Amino acid sequence: MKRSLMLQRRFKVTTAIITLTILGLVLPSCSRSPEEASITLGIIQAEMATSIYVAESQHVFESNGLKLAVKNYDTGVGTVNALLNGDVDIAMAAEYPIIGPALEKQSIQIFAVNDRFENDYLMVRNDRGINSPTDLKGKRIGVIKGTILEFYLGRYLELNGVSLKDVTIVNTENTSQTTNAIVNGDLDAVVAFQPYVNTIQTEMGSEVLTWAGQSNQLVYGVFVSRSDWLKGNSDVAQRFIEALSEADDYVAAHPDTAKEILREKMNLDSSYVTSIWPQHQFSLSLDFSLIAAMTDEARWMISNTLTPETNLPDFSKFIYTGGLKAVKPETVNINP
User: Fold this and answer.
1) pLDDT number for residue 335
2) 208-240 as b/e, with b when 16 or more CB fall inside 10 Å?
3) What CATH number is attached to the domain comprising 157?
4) For a 10 Å CB count at each end of the chain, is N or C smaller?
5) Which of the four pLDDT bands, split at 50, 70 and 90, describes residue 182?
6) Does residue 24 fall inside a structural domain?
7) Does some domain include residue 136?
8) Could you report the per-residue pLDDT of 189-203, keeping only the tens digit for each?
9) Residue among 193, 215, 214, 217 nearest 292 (CA)
10) Is 27 domain-assigned?
11) Does one domain contain both 138 and 188?
């Protein structure tokens, strides 16, 4: 009897030790924060980066186990080239600079749209006799080639009965050259995006006319990466999207604070930030309208012989939906 009681006690003690040991192994792993991952992100210093600025300000990258290194570029062409060269892991851009690499069958994929906006304008010197779109015939127009500005210029001219052959297109290469060319009178007109449009207007006043350049077609602010990086870092990409989602929620809940974060980050005027704020839709998505826009832009690029490629690709193959589906599945309606 005594021996039986002793065996029972030993069994209970052994069981307790095993249980505590298991808990000691399991519980820490359940509560452990995700292992920190490093990301190099290429961005354009423009309003479309608001969610990134807010996420940095609110430390949501760190809370999602991410260590972010940000590199600034002048245009989306710069960020996408940096991505293809391996200088960054993720690039922020408009959708247009991704079309060329897609036509060339580069292994890159968009994994989130974070903003839809209107901020591109045709700016003309009214001392050159330009009072309507048809007056652009025979004029010199500056645009940063390879950017979505090039597409919007071509579409604007077409819709107003002016051919690209009717004007002289000058590649201004970067935002500084674009601004200087119109201000100094080197060109008759330029296509520019905010906040540089505001800079030109401030410097030139009544000497410049500003016409909406997008013909009601919004720009898609996207995040894109190399396919091999996304395949090997799907958990990191998902955490990045989680951080963006938290930042977007913050922007929606605290718009005045978000505006102030943007203003301070880019050294902007408060009245300017207030004026452009309604032109942006800060929310995550991946929907078919993105593919439709890219197809339209690629068709225009091919028809104007801006690429040696002649066949339209299936742009759904250049979309990675896994990360956003895991975070906000209701915002995805693309099935690659």
Assistant:
1) 77
2) bbeeebbeebbbbbbbbbbeebbeebeebbbbb
3) 3.40.190.10
4) N
5) very high
6) no
7) yes
8) 999 999 999 999 999
9) 217
10) no
11) yes
pLDDT at 7: 40
**Domain edge (last residue) among 156, 180, 212:** 212
| Final residue before a domain boundary, out of 152, 177, 212 | 212
Q: 160 with 246, same domain?
A: no
pTM above 0.90, yes or no: no
Residues 69 and 200 in one domain: no
CA 310 → CA 16, 77, 80, 304, distances in Å?
A: 71, 21, 22, 11
Same domain? For 236 and 110 the reply is yes
Q: How many domains does the chain have?
A: 2
- The pLDDT tens digits of the residues spanning 6-64 come to 445 554 444 444 444 444 444 343 444 568 999 999 999 999 999 999 999 999 999 99
CA 258 to chain centroid, in Å, comes to 17
> What residue numbers bound the domain in which 168 lies?
120-212
What pLDDT is stored for residue 35 in this prediction? 85
185 and 307 in a common domain? no
Q: Quick check: is 185 in a domain?
A: yes
Length of the chain in terms of residues written: 336
Neighbouring C-beta atoms of residue 304, cutoff 10 Å: 13
Per-residue pLDDT of 81-140, as tens digits, reads 999 999 999 999 999 999 999 999 999 999 999 999 999 999 999 999 999 999 999 999
Q: Which amino acid is it at 251?
A: V
Residue position matching structure tokens 């935002």: 175
Instruction: Say if residue 85 is in the same domain as residue 173.
Output: no
